[in-house]
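hey m, so remember when u said the tokens were messed up on ur end? i reran from scratch. heres the input so u can diff it against urs
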Amino acid sequence: MNKNILYLLGIFFSLSIGITSCSKDTQVADPYSDWAVRNDAYIDSIASICANPPAGENWLRILNYKIQTEASEGLGYQTYTPGKNDYVYMKLFPQDDIEPLGISPLGTDTVAVHYRGKLINGTVFDQSFSGNWNAEVSEPRSFAVSGVIVGWTTALMQMKEGQHVELYIPASLGYGSVASGEIPAYSALVFDVRLEKVIHPKGPDDRSLKLKME
């Protein structure tokens, strides 16, 4: 066989071994490494922003509704000192200063909502609309206020019809240590939320009838 051909084959073989070796040594970084720590630090940063918002921004910090309810009923939470993970954080969009907004839902109500949910790395895991929100074509989704994660229920009962917020939920008020679909365990959740409508259950305690009578 021609010596030049043997020489070229030798070089090719050496390069192949080198590439294979590099491939084995190269490890793909885990995008969810130290996930719990990163999410906890993220909520730390949000809590700090909420406590000292930038000029022109309006934020709310809302205590977990279960703690609020149990404390008001004298069930032992009077001496409990809530931490940052006992709150949800809401950034109010400027148009929310325009009155009048509608009423706030009760835990027994159903709501129609536009939303987009993301992880702290920007990954979208659920949404009621694609692309940019458009009031003329976007269809809200409806669900019971008490039928969602604690962070959502807590926020919804403080929102009003027509309100648009960016909602930050610590993992403890979301899915906690359990993964759910595309949401890894220990995930803080970020939502763009528009409360479209509050729907009251019909019956003798129908709040919409009481409001008409007032």
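this time it looks ok to me. The first strand starts at residue 58 and ends at 63. if urs says something different then somethings off w ur setup not the seq
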